[in-house]
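Tokens as discussed.
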């Protein structure tokens, strides 16, 4: 699977993309991550990527012509591709979206900066997704969250595929149970006895009782 980050500062994501599960998936050839710096597609000698908003207002807006040029540079014929705009006003990203997006061969994330991208970008993307009701400095962080959640559904990425089956929010509601490991007792706080009992039925009942995590 291929991920393309169309962003003003795509390099800001490297510390995450080059570590842990995501880095391992890239080394194994399961995932390819491409950085697409928007500034490389500026059309003047000053490498201008933004301008003042029409009608007035604070801040700067990324130019649609520059962003679309960057976007088009990564599209390939014959590849199942989904183009996603990271947008705080978009539909909130859910676990079901991660599973759905994992079915594509190529995901392109168009990431805003400053006061956002010229609204005409909506004509060039397939959907707008948000990771929450707040504003970030740039869309790169939101793209990272969606990439991380999505690639967990790609076969071979997780060391233990059963982990995905027990994951939180798998069925749309929070259901993660509390987890423990050694030491059995730490500063008078002890692992629940039921988890040490070896009785799988009781352990399953304990894990299914959501009151333990509330």
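Sequence:
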């Amino acid at each position: 699977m291929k991920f393309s980050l169309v962003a003003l500062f795509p390099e800001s994501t490297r510390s995450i993309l080059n570590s842990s599960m995501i880095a391992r998936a890239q080394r194994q050839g399961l995932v390819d991550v491409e950085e697409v710096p928007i500034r490389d597609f500026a059309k003047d000698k000053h490498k201008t990527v933004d301008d003042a908003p029409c009608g007035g207002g604070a801040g700067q807006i990324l130019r649609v012509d520059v962003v679309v040029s960057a976007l088009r540079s990564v599209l390939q014929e014959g590849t199942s591709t989904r183009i996603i705009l990271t947008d705080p006003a978009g539909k909130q990203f859910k676990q079901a979206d991660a599973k759905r997006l994992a079915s594509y061969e190529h995901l392109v994330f168009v990431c805003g900066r400053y006061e956002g991208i010229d609204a005409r970008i909506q004509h060039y993307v397939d959907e707008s997704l948000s990771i929450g009701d707040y504003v970030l400095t740039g869309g790169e962080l939101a793209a990272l969250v969606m990439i991380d959640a999505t690639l967990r559904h790609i076969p071979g990425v997780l060391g233990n595929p059963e982990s995905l089956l027990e994951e939180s929010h798998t069925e749309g509601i929070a259901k993660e149970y509390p987890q423990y490991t050694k030491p059995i007792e730490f500063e008078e706080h002890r692992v629940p006895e039921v988890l040490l009992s070896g009785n799988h039925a009781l352990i399953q009942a304990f894990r299914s009782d959501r009151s333990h995590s509330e």
